Amino acid sequence: MxxxxxxxxxxxxxxxxxxxxxxxxxxxxxxxxxxxxxxxxVFLDDFPPGRDSAAIGAYLDRALIFTTEAGRRLALTxxxxxxxGSVLLLQAELQAPASLRGVRITNxxxxxxxxxxxxxxxxxxxxxxxxxxxxxxxxAKEIP
Amino acid sequence: xxxxxxxxxxxxxxxxxxxxxRSVKAAARDRATALTEISDQRxxxxxxxEFFTARVERDPQGALDLARLGALYxxxxxxxxxxxxxxxxxxxxxxxxxxxxxxxxxxxxxxxxSLVAQHRFNDALEAxxxxxxxxxxxxxxxxxxxxILLELGRYPEADAAxxxxxxRRYEPELAARVAxxxxxxxxxxxxxxxxxxxxxxxxxxxxxxxxxxxxYAFRIADLALKSDAVxxxxxxxxxxxxxxxxxxxxxxxxxxxxxxxGRFHDAVELGDSAITARLDPATLGLIADAEExxxxxxEAAGYRRAMEAAAGLQLGxxxxxxxxxxxxxxxxxAQILGAVTRDIQTRPxxxxxxxxxxxxxxxxxxxxxxxxxxxxLRWNAEDPAIRRHAAAIQKAIDGG
Lengths: 144, 400
Description:
The structure holds two protein chains of two kinds. Chain A is mainly β. Chain A has helices at residues 2-10, 53-63, and strands at 22-29, 35-43, 64-67, 76-84, 87-95, 104-107, 118-125, 128-135, 141-142. Chain A is built from two helices and nine strands; from the N terminus they run H-E-E-H-E-E-E-E-E-E-E. Chain A has a six-stranded mixed beta sheet with strand order 4-5-2-1-7-8, covered by helices on one side. Chain A has a three-stranded antiparallel beta sheet with strand order 3-6-9. In chain A, 41% of the residues are buried. Chain B is mainly alpha-helical. In chain B, 80% of the residues lie in helices and 0% in strands. Chain B has 20 helices and no strands. Chain B has helices at 2-58, 64-80, 83-99, 105-117, 121-134, 139-151, 155-162, 172-184, 188-204, 210-226, 230-243, 248-260, 264-277, 281-293, 297-311, 320-328, 333-346, 350-362, 366-379, 384-397. In chain B, helix 3 (83-99) packs antiparallel against helix 4, helix 11 packs antiparallel against helix 12 and helix 13 runs antiparallel to helix 14. The longest helix of chain B is centred in the N-terminal third of the chain and has 57 residues, at 2-58. Chain B is globular and about 85 Å long. At the A-B interface, helix 1, strand 1, strand 7 and strand 8 of A face helix 1, helix 2, helix 3, helix 4 and helix 6 of B.
């Protein structure tokens, strides 16, 4: 124990980096499935609904939106949460078409708190991985 | 004879394939072991935070438990990037010191470190000065003060702080900071030597975490890469990833190496993995460069836009590495020059002058650029990036 906190205060400037306001969402769909697993990683301190499950579900409904190319909203169901230190990990299930190509994502997680919020979405579907970045000013983006 | 040759070749192929499969399985097993251990170590750290939080609640007048709690917050912040944890660390340090100013080394060091993490270097120096005034024989405190002086560009004072520590540079409590001094003062090889030795000692410590051990590999690799020692950097990245397979800093460095070697698809893939684990705007710039090289200007523009936003030049969250990148990639030169000019007022160090010089260069003010780069070269004439900038400025002045 003693070494751990000692090294913690010992390694300083070279380890320092600017803390950022970010979230990371991963969308994973196995081939041929009509659902996708969605995981969201946010800082618990920053996350407006905190750990209240009902509030989290309602918040995701407003801030993380998936639509088809034709504009039909895809159902996203919040299923579980767990925390790891200062990080909150959310799990949700997305009712999706057989391919996510062309699906549009709107990600406005935590943008109401931080103007410099940057949300990363990684989509893994059909053997392809795509990364989409969302600034607070961004609208919907299409999965290529 | 022909049949014997075929049989020998077939047997050899079977042996090679079996050996390869064993090696793949062993690597997968090692990775799984590493990830499990890291997860366990994080859980222990969080339990330690709970433990010390409870102790602090029971004894709010104590100093040591508050300092330990704050140190744990700082460790967690460095792993997760949580700004809230950095502020908690500072608050714990201040409470600890309010309870006891003297014989509270950890409290003072924690306060200085948490302020450094917020890039509040002048406030951090004040804390470091206070500790050295109370404990002039504390070498770790003197090293911390020296390191902050380096960040503020006060090199004669930093040299005076570090020179007496040189003989003890391999001790883990001092090594990281002495290495930083060597790096800033243009002795990258010595810096790597110190870190390698410290890393060997830390490896033998039972109570260091995998993430702490990986940090040394990251620093050595980063320094090697800055010195254009790509092969050495690559080896240390691999060593680090063997210890901590999902370390975002190491994966980001692997992406940087891939870009330097022209492996653009790898650079994008590794870069994306790194930002998914933990976002570093510099990695966004790197991915943008790789996308550009792959002929995907729209993707490149998206990453650059994100990087510019994350750099937060308009929000006061000025970051030099990002600003330097933006100068080279069509960023707003006038805006960056304004931010750099303000920054140099409080932090007139080598990298600040290098950035100022490059801002002037991009603005076409070559004589001003020469004056600024001379100030950077005065204290570190070895840094390859500074030398490249100096050469370009000189060429522009010569009409090249």
